[in-house]
Amino acid sequence: MMMTKVYMVAAVLCGAMVVSVLPGGAAADRNLKGVLTVAGINRSYEVHVPASYGGREPVPLLMVLHGSSASGAVMRLYSRFNECSERNNFIVAYPDSLGPYWNDGRVDMNSVSYKANIDDVRFISGLIDQLVSRYSVDAGRVYIAGFSNGGMMALRLGIAIPEKLAAISSVSGLLPKHLSYLRPARPLPVMIIQGTEDPIVPSEGGKLDGKHGEILSAVDTAAYWSARNECSTPVGVQVLPDNDPDDGTLVFRVTYSCEKSESEVVLLTIQGGGHSWPGTRIPLVQKKWGKTCMDIDATAVIWDFFSCHRRA
């Protein structure tokens, strides 16, 4: 839910610069700023095209959704998916919400997007279509990941447009309760990463601070997708290596018994983890929103999960 102005401060401190280039251009900086008009409203986004992209062989497309009060540019810095795209040859896009919040499916009376009924599903769906047509994108390998409010939006998109997606992932973002009554049209692989000590999006679910709506717990969010994907009840639990004993966290990987790979559901529960992106430690964030897990790198873990899945 909350990815607040402190991340914008971090972005300024990093001295980020985005330079527009033509698709497939030879500029050293491979970032493009774009605008897509939806229902008469101009919606902004960034796209990063890896240096290895030649335009002949189709490559995967990843959409990364920022948290509230942030932007695609901040999410680019925070997640470091540009570097991941360079190593793995995929295009990554960072859309911007209209105002502070994505309309992620919560009944959130503090959200301008909710009260104005901003159609963010249509925006992201249209942006996928635009990028698939503009670049040589493998339409069977389109993924969405998000943080906090952006993670909840990723879950909403998994329900609304599963026919366009190969897999989704949410970090510090759980399923809005009102969406739990809906059923996706097809199974979709899902990875959920959630800290047990998250003060903004509590892992036990419930009503969020103020009038920010209601969410399911981390376990119930995973169970929702497991049921929709027709996975069986038994789960496997694995304790991952404590690679950074000083971070105060421990990661448990919970997997559901899904016969088909296109039904895979994974819950990474971070014992002691706060409201943060594992693998990216920002002192101001850690001081206010809890411990950052450094035992895993969420960026690498999410891409490893995505790379195993392709939409049939």
Structure description:
Helices cover 27% and strands 25% of the residues. The longest helix is centred in the middle third of the chain and has 15 residues, at 120-134. The protein has 312 residues and is of the alpha/beta class. The protein starts with a helix and ends in a 5-residue tail after the last helix. It has nine helices and twelve strands.
Strand order, largest beta sheet? 1-2-4-3-5-6-7-12-11-10
Q: Helix/strand-derived class?
A: alpha/beta
Q: List the secondary-structure elements in sequence, H or E.
A: HEEEHHEHHEHEEEEHEEEHH
Uncertain spans:
1-28
Protein traits:
alpha/beta; 12 strands; globular; 27% helix; 25% strand; disordered N terminus; single chain; 10-stranded mixed sheet; 312 residues
Task: Describe the secondary structure blueprint for this structure.
Blueprint: H1 5-14, E1 31-38, E2 41-48, E3 59-65, H2 72-79, H3 81-88, E4 91-95, H4 112-115, H5 120-134, E5 137-147, H6 149-160, E6 167-171, E7 190-195, E8 206-207, E9 214-215, H7 218-228, E10 232-239, E11 250-257, E12 265-271, H8 283-289, H9 298-307
Parallel strand pairs: 3-4, 3-5, 5-6, 6-7, 7-12
Antiparallel strand pairs: 1-2, 2-4, 8-9, 10-11, 11-12
Helix pairs in contact: 1-2, 5-6
How would you summarize this macromolecular structure in one to three sentences?
The chain is an alpha/beta fold and 312 residues long. Helix content is 27%, strand content 25%.
